[in-house]
Amino acid sequence: MNTRDLEYFAALAQQRNFTLVAKKFQVTQPTITLAIKRLENQTNQQLVIRDQSHHSIALTAAGHIFANHIAVILNELAQTKQDLAAIQPTKIRFGLPPIIGINYFPQFTPALAAANLLTSITTTEGGSADLLEKLKRGDIDIALLGSIDPIDHPGITAKLLARQPFEIIAPGNSHWAAQTPIYFKDVAREPFIMLASGFVHPQAFARLAEASQTSPEIVYHTGDINLIKNMVQQGVGLGFLAQTAMHKNDNLLAITLADADQPHFNIYVAYRANQVLTPEKQRVIEILSGQRTN
């Protein structure tokens, strides 16, 4: 079996149309037909049922099984190519959510610089959910990720580094400063500015709302943490951020909630378990994990 035939079949299993698959790969339709015939001969199985009247196909039971295995094989091949391309010691593709990059990650930069690793790191920024998907696909090598649940995904090794509370963010001169303790239900009638869906904050916010049986209004979504802080300062609404996103010079009020069993912002270092770690990548993981080497 050659990989091009497998790619043709994977596309056909998704699109169920020979013409569309031929257009996708910029080949003739008979090329796709012959590739499927080769695969059927090699597997000794009928993989597709052709509906000539509707110019479409359906997968047989064997075809469904074959398609599932092909998806895994093609994904592994793609990751293998990326791992081989990234094995150069000067390239470490690193995922970093902005909210972790503000105050948490900088504490490791002196050690990374001392180990001559900072110049080897190419950073990709984004929400933790988006970066986890990039990690699974092999688009990045190592990531710091935030999560409210344990990171337990097949093929991903994740080590817990820190656990921090979420906080309600209000203007520095807000009346909330005089009220303690504060529960989520106390602020649920206020408008909120929220981080976008690629971050874990909306999940934590939704759990607090469900637990308190409230439905706060979210007036604006953004992936820009500084914009959230500025909008809060302007009185547009309250913010909801992990403690690590706040700085003492923000001139904002950070309110720790008194709710029991509230979600926490867990910070992990994560990487694909099946990738071959270069000494440089291993050292980055050790530094982020707080491990010391002689």
TrEMBL record:
Protein name: Uncharacterized protein
Superkingdom of the organism of origin: Bacteria
Record-linked PANTHER family: HTH-TYPE TRANSCRIPTIONAL REGULATOR YBHD
MF annotations from Gene Ontology: DNA binding; DNA-binding transcription factor activity
Keywords, sorted A to Z: DNA-binding, Transcription, Transcription regulation
InterPro entries with a match to the protein in the record: HTH-type_LysR_regulators, LysR_HTH_N, LysR_subst-bd, WH-like_DNA-bd_sf, WH_DNA-bd_sf
Source organism (scientific name): Loigolactobacillus backii
One of the record's GO cellular component terms: cytosol
Protein family according to the UniProt entry: Belongs to the LysR transcriptional regulatory family.
